[in-house]
Amino acid sequence: MAARTGKEFLKGLRGKRDIWVGSDKVADVVDHPAFTGAAHGLAGVFDLQHRYADDCLIPDPETGEQINVSHMIPRSKDDIFRRHKGLARIAEYTVGIMGRSPDYMNVTYAGFAGRSDEWGANGNEEGAENLVNYQKFLRRNDISLTHTLVHPTIDKATGDFVGPPNEVPLHKVGETEHGIVVRGARVLATLAPFADEIAVYPGQPILPDAHDYALSFCIPMDTPGLKFLCRDSCAGSSNRHDHPLSSRFDEQDAFVIFDDVEVPRDRIHINCNVAVYNQVMATGWFPNVMQQTMIRAQTKLEFAWGLATRMTESVGGLQGPAVQMLGEIWSYAEFARACIQAAEESAYEFGNGVWFPNGTPLTALKATLPTWFPRVNEIIRLLGSHNLLAAPSAAQLASPELRPLIDRYMHGANGIDAETRSRLFRLAWDFTGSALASRGEQYERFYLASGARNQQLAHMIADRARADKLVDRFVNEEAVAGADRKLAEAV
């Protein structure tokens, strides 16, 4: 099978799986009110790759069939640029709202397969071979893959250590003729209701003796014993005038329980190998996957700037303070664009013939985005003021009794009609004030860890050579001058 269509994607979601939202055990995610909007929204992503095939599709290197460019294992800087085009198309479709569209995991596993030499270290050759084979399966079947990599927080006072006797984190409890049995929980499986399979791979390093917790594998969503507890739905109605974003882009998040789940042996990528578990994420994973996630973030920032500008124009508000705040949003979007360009232009070979972007500019973005996105939301809400709460609904606009009054009293400045103004302010509210918006802000604050933690990490891994050289000139100059003074006094 080559790259799937939206219809084929939706057909694949109709299988049996153990997914809960509220009190409902969901029989069919495609038709359930909490999920149907996003299911069809994601179907649009699969259709998109055919509509923009020149940007989104490439031939599989072994079979020649058309696959999504996000499955590419980059072998040159040109490959990095080529992949950018396809990733940007998907980001534009969701305007960056969906942080875990399938291309995220496609890029992740392409990077893992490209650096299979790292996965095959320390006696894990069989796991590495399984991973390479799985990436072929993933790309050739155009699988929608979710992941879960964080251990649940139980008691921060104890450090949430991962290892015995802590039974909460996912761990191995036995072996069978065909594989292993795992038990425990992980968070947070974004996209879970709309995935065909789920991946487990390393998050934070674990203790050297926590062997049973050092696991990585991929299994189908309908595997017996897998249970998904979804958060409350943020999906608005199917009315795209009233809920232009939440009607189609609530990608969902789920707590995952592994209730004695059997993992087939050929799906295991790490089996109780702590050394491999603690090192495979330390080099190429970050700069590789950050190309996808930062293109998404930059697109979302640019959308926010365009939306804020159009909304402000609609009420004739382009004066000093408002323009200053609009310029602030533009600056964030431009900084993000420049960092991505710098990372791609300075891409280099990371080993095993695989090329990834330079991670340094992306590290700076990772450390600042958790601050930028809440500020962008604040600016739009300040600019929108009470108007965000006074936009007529589609039903009100359709009312023969109300429409003439709405047209008379609720139009905008500069000839903007009432319906256009309503669409702008409802779009702005869905982006910054709705349940989906609140979830999105929380996501942006923490999905790559908090801004504070990332700033600490950025300082710890930064190259200080030039900065120290600049400082040393003056420090050493004073030291030399002090020595000269002491010599003169002695004479």
Number of domains: 2
How would you write the strand order of the largest sheet? 2-1-10-11-7-6
Largest sheet: 6 strands, mixed
Percent helix, as a range, is 40-55%
| Rounded radius of gyration (Å) | 25 Å
Distance between the termini: 88 Å
Parts with pLDDT < 50 across at least 5 consecutive residues: none
- Mean pLDDT metric: 95
Per CATH, the architecture of the largest domain is Beta Barrel
Strand fraction = 5-15%
Structure summary, number of beta strands: 14
CATH class of the largest domain: Mainly Beta
- CATH topology tier name of the largest domain: Butyryl-CoA Dehydrogenase, subunit A, domain 2
- Count of DSSP helices? 17
Structural class by helix and strand composition: alpha+beta
Provide the CATH superfamily of the largest domain. Butyryl-CoA Dehydrogenase, subunit A, domain 2
What is the 3D form? Answer: globular
Task: Please explain how this structure is put together.
With 491 residues, the chain is α+β, with helices and mostly antiparallel strands. The chain folds into 2 domains: 6-277, Butyryl-CoA Dehydrogenase, subunit A, domain 2 (Beta Barrel); 285-449, Up-down Bundle (Butyryl-CoA Dehydrogenase, subunit A, domain 3). Helix content is 48%, strand content 13%. It has 17 helices and 14 strands. It has helices at 6-12, 36-51, 53-56, 77-94, 103-114, 116-119, 125-140, 274-277, 285-313, 320-345, 359-384, 394-398, 403-409, 418-432, 435-446, 451-461, 465-490; strands at 19-21, 24-25, 57-59, 66-68, 145-148, 171-175, 179-186, 197-200, 215-220, 226-230, 254-264, 268-271, 348-351, 354-356. The strands form 4 sheets. A 6-stranded mixed β-sheet has the order 2-1-10-11-7-6, with no helix packed on it. Strand 13 and strand 14 form a beta hairpin. Helix 1 packs antiparallel against helix 2 (36-51), helix 4 packs across helix 9 (285-313) and helix 9 packs antiparallel against helix 10. It is globular. 46% of the residues are buried. The model has no long low-confidence stretch (mean pLDDT 95).
